[in-house]
Amino acid sequence: MQASPQQTIGIAGCGAMGLPMARALLNAGFPVSGYDIRPANEFADFAPQMISDPHQFSDLCTTVICVVRDEKQVLDLCFNDQAIFEAENPPQTFVLSSTVSPRFVHKLREKLPQDVVLIDAPMSGAPLAAIAATLTFMVGGPAQPVTDLQPAFQAMGSKIHHLGHLGTGMTAKVLNNFVAASTVVAVRNVLYHADKLGMDKQTLLDVMRKSSGQTWFGSNYQQIDWANEIHDSANTIGILEKDVRSFINALEDGPEPLHDAIITALQTLPPAPS
């Protein structure tokens, strides 16, 4: 589906997910601008679309899709360091695709100008799916604005689930990512012990792919560029820990022993076998 000529989409946070999403929109015919704190010359062929001034970026974009790392960076983008909502012509629609606590989504709604449409639309599939434009979007927000953005979502993803009111997309995402984090822990654990037991890693992954141990992480292990990472707050394993904490934050009764165990396991992943 092609873009409406009036609809200029901005991607805020052109990292491992945001940059391929921006490229997918551009390839589908959308006018696209990108914003990132890194200089434009780091973005190769996408450099001409990068805007270094956040207020200029905001003025150019009727819709901004936020793909920054965490809640602090969302607040910096909207109100603090970059303060795009203090620009002369702030965006009319703000799509929150960063993974944060569902509680934060509603706090953000309270802080944004009332005439700004807020949609939560986190995505799943990792950079692998972002590059292939086959992301899964979990969307919460008012029906008509979500419908209006369907062409943009379809340019970046293959499955778009409009789950209901504001916050439902983020709720689905943190629940999904808790399961994903659990499978990362499980697969990495069995690969470590398989190596100790003399079982070839690839042989085990092939068996699991066709057996009850099948998981997205295990089935795509060789294609996932972060599959062998150990924990660092700045890498993907660190982001998974942040996502688990976002899930826990949404729980009124606080963490259960399993939740704490998954965080500890992510922080102490064993080295991956060669």
Structural write-up:
- The chain is α/β, with parallel strands linked by helices and 274 residues long.
- It folds into two domains: 9-165, Rossmann fold (3-Layer(aba) Sandwich), CATH 3.40.50; 172-267, N-(1-d-carboxylethyl)-l-norvaline Dehydrogenase, domain 2.
- 45% of the residues lie in helices and 13% in strands.
- It is built from twelve helices and eight strands.
- It has helices spanning 18-27, 54-60, 71-78, 102-111, 126-132, 143-148, 150-156, 168-196, 201-209, 216-219, 236-249, 257-267; strands at 9-12, 32-35, 63-66, 93-96, 117-120, 123-124, 135-140, 157-164.
- The strands form two sheets. It has a five-stranded parallel sheet with strand order 2-1-3-4-5, sandwiched between helices.
- Strand 1 (9-12), helix 1 (18-27) and strand 2 form a beta-alpha-beta unit.
- The longest helix is centred in the middle third of the chain and has 29 residues, at 168-196.
- The radius of gyration is 19 Å and the shape is globular.
- Residues 1-5 have low confidence and may be disordered.
The gist of it:
By secondary structure, this protein is α/β, with parallel strands linked by helices. The chain has helices at 18-27, 54-60, 71-78, 102-111, 126-132, 143-148, 150-156, 168-196, 201-209, 216-219, 236-249, 257-267; strands spanning 9-12, 32-35, 63-66, 93-96, 117-120, 123-124, 135-140, 157-164. 45% of the residues lie in helices and 13% in strands.
